[in-house]
Structures
1.
Amino acid sequence: ETCVYKNKDAPVEARVKDLLSRMTLPEKIGQMTQIERVVTTPPVITDNFIGSVLNGGGSWPFEDAKTSDWADMIDGYQNAALASRLGIPIIYGIDAVHGNNNVYGATIFPHNIGLGATRDADLIRRIGAATALEVRACGAHWAFAPCVAALRDPRWGRSYESYSEDPDIICELSSLVSGLQGEPPKEHPNGYPFLAGRNNVVACAKHFVGDGGTDKGINEGNTIVSYEELEKIHLAPYLNCLAQGVSTVMASYSSWNGNKLHSDYFLLTELLKQKLGFKGFVISDWEALERLSEPFGSNYRNCVKISVNAGVDMVMVPFKYEQFIKDLTDLVESGEVTMSRIDDAVERILRVKFVAGLFEHPLTDRSLLGTVGCKEHRELARESVRKSLVLLKNGTNSAKPFLPLDRNVKRILVTGTHADDLGYQCGGWTKAWFGLSGRITIGTTLLDAIKEAVGDKTEVIYEKTPSEETLASLQRFSYAIVVVGETPYAETLGDNSELTIPLNGNDIVTALAEKIPTLVVLFSGRPLVLEPLVLEKAEALVAAWLPGTEGQGMTDVIFGDYDFEGKLPVSWFKRVDQLPLTADANSYDPLFPLGFGLNYNSG
Ligand SMILES: OC[C@@H]1[C@@H](O)[C@H](O)[C@@H](O)c2nc(-c3ccccc3)cn21
């Protein structure tokens, strides 16, 4: 007789109970241990009963590894896990936060702040479904998405990972969960993990809770708010995620009123698990336990104790797994961490693995390879870009709007640091953790798209920085398109309190805008300082956020095939000394308010 847990027709809870009852302490603690691919080998997995593997941003099998190379790597790990005594499959997690962005050739969608400008929940759901296919194609089972942070201060280095400052918008766009995991049937119990099938991935609502509300936007900082404000602004999206059966939640590095989330029993256990009824598992962030003590990593045994007891179920160690396993084993043997806490954590992990069908389908479905970067997905990304663009200015008076641009003029000048840089266009979390510059993957830069879009008699002159002779003969051009913005960044590296346009973007605009009609396209992960230069001197101004690989979504709108639909998902400040500046504040004096956006018919 096959044991209950191996019986695919047995109820999930019976399979969980049966398997748990067979497990030794090392096997249980192994399930709670997530390690990074650089320290992962088949023997490491089998010897330590490892339950999960991840790759950090930019940790590839090798540069420009194809999706099939990723699948070979992950299936190699999986076969090791399946060879263990109980044959419990690993769950492999990856940061697919705007497409399967670690993997060369994947479709790269706009980052969340651009998606926030679309206000289109169904679009985001479709993005989730497409992303899930490309993630499964590489062998991964789990995407560390959606980030449902509320962007309360754009000085935060992770602004672009947030959909909006407004929790209502974030709640709407948490539909990514249903896209990634599939839509649960209406009778699905709230808070219970769900996964539709092999074309879906486990989702991860992050970072619980209040990650976007830290003081001055300091990454991993302290969110100082009342419980009511925490509930209204930061917790709300998690209710929507739980209602969609989100299977995992990632704890935040940040603190709430001085208490580190990773050691906060009230929030992780009493609120999320008991009051809200979350039945999936909580994963820590990367080396988050080390951050619980000063200096970093000191007294690690105590960090393990307070985080596991607070409610962390799986630890993204991700390198010192021997230390973690040793300390947690010691803590259980001494009774400082109870076996019932261990069993609760392992039950949650096993529940997700059974729900995700990993026991039935542990290896990559190679038939999905063709979905990676496929035309249909790139068209979806292109649609997303179109809907994410926000028109901030169009002509100096509505009498004669500057956009849509005439695509049949004699000659146009395209210039600026971001006009022909796919890496800049995609931003952070693309191929590398912080992002890169240059032709980093398969895609279409804005310059490529402009060349495609203009009439065949129209000459396109491109200069990254306008040359002296160009500046001396601007009358040769009907108009200029200047593309400037932020260079890629991630997390703390992106914390910034000046928020000016880098790489002397202002100078390029100023040099041109006085002399010929100039459209400025801004690539940024957040609002930047626009006055006095850019706003006054530019004939038209488009906020493109971080659009990803499908640059034609921008020319579709700029040349008038489609109208602008984007609405600001975040208040646009005049000066940084106004920050934090959100629409729900009592004094509100933005340059452009939350929800602002012109179109071809607006006055
Ligand atoms: O990539 C895995 C997770 C990701 O899912 C989280 O959203 C994010 O907070 C995060 N930061 C690091 C990370 C931080 C510092 C050094 C190295 C890595 C790793 N990770």
Note: The longest strand covers residues 479-485.
2.
Amino acid sequence: MVRKRKTSAILVKKIMSYAQLLPAHLHSQLFKQVRSSSFLCQNSKTNQNIPRRLVLNVQADRSSATMQKPEMKVPHVLTVAGSDSGGGAGIQADLKACAARQVYCSTVVTAVTAQNTVGVQGVDIMPEDFVAEQLKSVLSDMDVDVVKTGMLPSPGIVRVLCQSLREFPVKALVVDPVMVSTSGDALAGPSVLDGLREELLPLANIVTPNIKEASVLLGGVPVRSVSDMRAAAKLIHDMGPRNVLVKGGDLPNSSDAIDVLFDGEGFHELCASRVNTRNTHGTGCTLASCIAAELAKGSSVLEAVRAAKHFIETALDYSKDIVIGNGAQGPFDHFFALKKVHQSSYRQDKFNPNDLLLYAVTDSGMNRKWGRSISDAVKAAVEGGATIVQLREKHAETREFLDAAKACLKICHSYGVPLLINDRIDIALACNADGVHLGQSDMPAHVARTLLAPGKIIGVSCKTPEQAQQAWIDGAHYIGSGGVYPTTTKEDNITIGIDGLKELCLASKLPVVAIGGIKPSNVRAVMEIGVPNLKGVAVVSALFDRECIKTETENLHTLVSEAVLQKKRA
Ligand SMILES: Nc1ncnc2c1ncn2[C@@H]1O[C@H](COP(=O)(O)OP(=O)(O)OP(=O)(O)O)[C@@H](O)[C@H]1O
Ligand SMILES: Cc1ncc(CO)c(N)n1
Ligand SMILES: [Mg+2]
């Protein structure tokens, strides 16, 4: 209700309190407007009078940057996909993947499937008009960063999707060209192929076919090996998407899960060890959603694919023994990170020697030199692909170190990366780290074993076969061996060389990580010594004494992964 009233003393008081909502430099302007205002609004709930113009001004200023509360933009993925009643793939996987990656996810349902771990029993396709209506509801109202598509079961749905994307452009489009479920049931027929190839793919930043889908997109060209995957990626790229990721989860006779990314200029082979599990239902949907989530947060395509792949490998490893349903293929658990933080026993005796691949060791002196906090340095390293992190803070105050360790643990666990503490068992216990790394003059490993919870990782630095033998007797999980090359990080450190490393690997019953002066130019020589229990390299200066830790880590990760892959192929 709007009534004409005179400005009263009470009203002046009211105006003063409203003015407090606004920054000081706008006060005089507001009071001028209030003085000239004769119309009043009445708040129907409180019956209080508010000058109408003032209300308008306050509302206008709320939307501008002058309000005191800063706006919080939430990264947002919209998934356009089918529902899986079993909860493992489709919309349900997308929601879980985005939530696990801390990104908001809205949903446009294209089909409802009756599906479980045995197969797909029924499919009900949404009418295209209703898909269009859902798209409009979300895209016209919400600030969507990235659209991710899954099951697109009719040509009409592909068409209305492309129309919506043109009407409401987004930052990126991730297309997972879902065609057949892993159980072998059809989810989209050949009638959608033309629309996919001609209308949708040219709009995509990345398309993620598995080997069967890559073959169908190319009209039946067989895709049965990594070199077929490379050729397929290049041909699909000609259809217009900026990047193509051909997934090798279903590649026959492969001990690794290898995916090939082609960005229009070059190839990246992304390799993960194949987890031996029946619980792989929904890996494709999850991978595409994780990529979309990382793009929404601002990552590059390569960073997003790497993070997504690492997420899948870790999630599969954590869920490899869970049993859901009676069929051949079960779903996996997207929220392993939560369990890892809250249930210290979840990972009991689950040390994965492959985590030693790229082992980042921090150094407080280097962080000081480059003006970085420990947690910023660790964040950059895990974002770049470090697979395990050790905090080595020789001179830090205990309280400061504990706070930093807690922050680093949160960061590492959000990426599924274990965090170890050098020497300081008290810090490891207090922050519930994943384990410790011990030198020859630190607490003996068998004593540390009695203090730490079962399953916590213990690593020991060894320079001789006798020390390696003792580490095994003491119940350690791995040994660190070096210095392979001369290093400035450790004073008076003896260099054992490549031959010394080889001798230690042969003598050790435990997995080995090489350390000491390792950098991009010599990492291949280290990994090429040809001993199976050498699992990776530990690095300090080559990551942390550099301007961009993340770039250096990415680079080294690519080199060490390639070396491991070649070793396996040889
Ligand atoms: N057993 C496994 N161990 C590790 N990674 C795996 C495994 N199976 C699949 N992956 C990875 O999961 C991702 C999805 O791969 P996949 O080729 O299975 O896709 P998809 O067939 O589209 O998925 P879905 O089976 O859910 O339909 C890829 O990065 C792949 O390498
Ligand atoms: C709804 C749906 N989308 C995608 C897949 C592919 O895994 C599936 N099985 N079900
Ligand atoms: Mg598959």
Note: Confidence is low (pLDDT under 50) at residues 1-7, 34-47, 50-67, 340-349.
